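User: Could you check the structure of this?
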Amino acid sequence: MTPDPSQDDDEEDIPELPPGVKNYMTPQGFAHMERELHRLLHEDRPKVVEIVSWAAGNGDRSENGDYIYGKKKLREIDRRIRFLNKRLEKAEVVDPARQAHLDRVYFGATVTYVNPRDEEITVTLVGVDEADMARGRISWRSPIARALFKAGEGDVVNVQTPAGRMPLEVVAITYGADAP
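Assistant: Sure, the predicted structure tokens are below.
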């Protein structure tokens, strides 16, 4: 059977970090990605391979839903495995609990700031693959994180937004076990 080029597993859809940019990651983020990779390799992929093998043995593959869906699922799993391998290989783990300059905002800091609407917002600066705004975890490469970088408590920094510059006042900075 010849491979279908329209279903090629090109890695062009995997977001790359810009050249020269380190892939900083917290120890927790690194461990989370390792667990996901282990689960995909040792649980999910073998189950799907078993289903595809069983479905392939049932004859005509062109109308076999289990076979078609299984092959699609296998491609998705393999794509995610490649992504995780690349990211973990290039990861530089930084433990925020070991930060020496606790009075300034650096990678891993949990920062509380006040915006112009007097809203108090708390965010943690994490790796690009760990960002989750719903949990208050923002990428260290985001505009807000870049604006906060090296700021101290009481400092006012400006973040560039589509509507213009927005001042943010840093209220608190914590690291590691002290972080909420």
